[in-house]
Description:
Elements: E1 4-10, E2 24-29, E3 32-36, H1 42-51, E4 64-66, H2 72-75, H3 78-88, E5 94-98, H4 102-112, H5 114-123, E6 133-137, E7 143-145, E8 150-155, E9 164-170, E10 173-177, H6 187-191, E11 196-202, H7 212-221, H8 225-235, E12 239-246, H9 252-260, E13 267-269, E14 275-277
Parallel strand pairs: 3-4, 4-5, 5-6, 10-11, 11-12, 12-13
Antiparallel strand pairs: 1-2, 1-14, 2-3, 7-8, 8-9, 9-10
Helix pairs in contact: 8-9
Amino acid sequence: MSGAQVLILGSGTPNAEADRVSSGLAIAVDGRPYLVDCGHGVVQRVVQARTHGLISWDTTDLDRLFLTHLHADHTVGLPDLLYTPWIHGRETPVDAFGPAGLERMLAHIQLAYAENIREHLSAHPCSELGYQAQAHELGAGFRYRDQRIEVQALPANHGDLDAFSYKFATPAGTVVVSGDTKPTPDFADWARGCDLLIHEVYSARQLPDRPPAWRAYHSRVHTSTRELAALANEIRPGRLLLYHQLFWGLTPGELVAEISSDYAGEVLSSSDLDVFEL
Ligand SMILES: [Zn+2]
Ligand SMILES: [Zn+2]
C-alpha cells in the first residue's frame, strides 16, 4: 500500500468502554507504521485491522513508537507491544521516543517480564532483539527523520508530567497529533496548515454537569470543544479529527456540532479502526 494512511487503533480514554480501547494510532508511510501511544488493546486492534484487510503491514512491523506522555491510558499496552509481536516474529528492537521517565518505565517492564523473556529465549525460536526497546527521551529541538517521515515534537500542557504533541511530515501530507493537552500558546503556529489535525477534546456543553474537582481538572489539562474550535480557526487544518473524546453522554454528532457551531471546516469524530488516507 503506497502513500500514507492513519489508522485509529484506540480512540478512547482512561474510562473503559465497550467499543473503544484506550489511546493509540498508527501513521503508515509506504506500508511502514509509526505508532503513537500504546494504550490497552492496541496490538489486538492491529490484528483486527490486518484481519479485516485495512492495512498491509503487521504487528511485526511495530518497531517505532512515539509516546505523548506516560499516563496509563497511553502506555499500559507496552508489555503487549514488546512481547506479542516478538512471538509473532519481530526481529528488531522497538525504538521508543517519549518524555522523561520513559527509559525507567521500559527498564521496569523488562524486569517485570524477566521470567517470560528468559524462557522464550531458551525454549522458543525467538529473536534475541525482537523484545528489546531502546528509549529515547525527548529533549529540546527533538527531530526524528528517516527516508519516509520527519517527526517533530512540541511540549504540551497536561499538568504535572512531561507531555508532547507530535507533527509527522510525510510525502503525502502532514499529520499533527495533539496528545493530551490544554491549548498552549505555541500550538496553533506550530500546527498551522497541517493536512490532518488529530486532537483530543471534551464537551464544553457537558462540563458544568461534572463534579467540581473533575471540572477543575479537565479545564486545567484538556481541551474543550470551544477551545478546539478556536484553535482550528487559527490552524485551518485540511481535516480535524477528534480522538480521546470525552463525550459525557453526547453522541459523536452532538460533539462535532459543538465545534462546528464555531468552526466551518471539516470535523470528524473518530472510532477505533477508522482509516484515513492522506
Ligand atoms: Zn489520556
Ligand atoms: Zn493523559
